[in-house]
Amino acid sequence: MRMWAGSRAVRSSLLMLLLTAANVGAPPPALSEDDLGGSGRGGRHKRRAFPGPHFHPTSPTNVTAQMSAHAYLPCRIKNLGNKSVSWIRNRDSHILTVDRYTFISDERFAAWHQAATQTWTLQIKFVQERDAGSYECQVSTEPKMSHFVQLDVITPQVTIAGEADIYVNSGSTVTIKCVITQALEEPNYIFWYHDDRRVVSAGSGRVLTVDRHPPDTSVGSLTIPSPSLSDSGNYTCAPASLSQASVMLHVLSGEHPAAMQRGTTSTTDTSGGPELRLHQSVLMAALISLLLCVCSPSFT
């Protein structure tokens, strides 16, 4: 009796395995008109067709980046499924990336995927002016789907406020200002150089500051509270990853700073001294006497 019960348990187990295998290999049941979203009766819960990949309307079409900064070109794709995403540079049709793989030797280019937002982002490090142009985000559907992003690169302008030469009396205070315009980002640092030596504030009494003036201007200031003749020379403003600007500082002691600050120079006496002026006076008197003689009636 126990053997029969054991045999029956084994047969039941085998039967369940066979049924499971049959269900796995069996084709799915045919879908009714209601399941397909037809207009028959009882269609309260109708199956809808699964939408294919499509670009999200929030994907930008224009991106602006600052020279030498990093640029990020996002491409948001809904319902991507098992399709691939490629980034292509349009000016030379160069395939930059496919999914997470990079196909260009320029290591500044890379792509990554953010699953939470279904976004494929192309990163370009240390952007150069030549990187400006159109980039294509392409999905491997048939036919291909494309979303285009225009990258604009702006170059900040670096200047020293005022004239190319600054004149100041020794012992007074002078401030040199480095103005950076068209800058989307504030520079990480602004170094100052006096001739070939970097200017530091610690222990020198000099004051270095950086102020941000929205939307796109930064001002770096170098203040010398009591300059001496040794402070004269070339001063260079060197912002991080940007061009440089220079100015000449002239520290005066007893000269004519008011005239020099207006951009004029003092004139030098080129008359040759008192002796030369005496000869000029004698010559002028002789010419006048000759003219009087010529014009008088007795001369004719």
From TrEMBL:
<dbReference type="InterPro" id="IPR013098">
    <property type="entry name" value="Ig_I-set"/>
</dbReference>
<dbReference type="Pfam" id="PF07679">
    <property type="entry name" value="I-set"/>
</dbReference>
<dbReference type="Pfam" id="PF13927">
    <property type="entry name" value="Ig_3"/>
</dbReference>
<dbReference type="InterPro" id="IPR036179">
    <property type="entry name" value="Ig-like_dom_sf"/>
</dbReference>
<feature type="domain" description="Ig-like">
    <location>
        <begin position="53"/>
        <end position="155"/>
    </location>
</feature>
<feature type="domain" description="Ig-like">
    <location>
        <begin position="156"/>
        <end position="248"/>
    </location>
</feature>
<dbReference type="GO" id="GO:0050808">
    <property type="term" value="P:synapse organization"/>
</dbReference>
<feature type="signal peptide">
    <location>
        <begin position="1"/>
        <end position="25"/>
    </location>
</feature>
<dbReference type="InterPro" id="IPR003599">
    <property type="entry name" value="Ig_sub"/>
</dbReference>
<feature type="region of interest" description="Disordered">
    <location>
        <begin position="29"/>
        <end position="60"/>
    </location>
</feature>
<dbReference type="InterPro" id="IPR037448">
    <property type="entry name" value="Zig-8"/>
</dbReference>
<dbReference type="GO" id="GO:0032589">
    <property type="term" value="C:neuron projection membrane"/>
</dbReference>
<protein>
    <submittedName>
        <fullName>Putative limbic system-associated membrane protein</fullName>
    </submittedName>
</protein>
<dbReference type="InterPro" id="IPR013783">
    <property type="entry name" value="Ig-like_fold"/>
</dbReference>
<keyword id="KW-0732">Signal</keyword>
<dbReference type="InterPro" id="IPR003598">
    <property type="entry name" value="Ig_sub2"/>
</dbReference>
<dbReference type="InterPro" id="IPR007110">
    <property type="entry name" value="Ig-like_dom"/>
</dbReference>
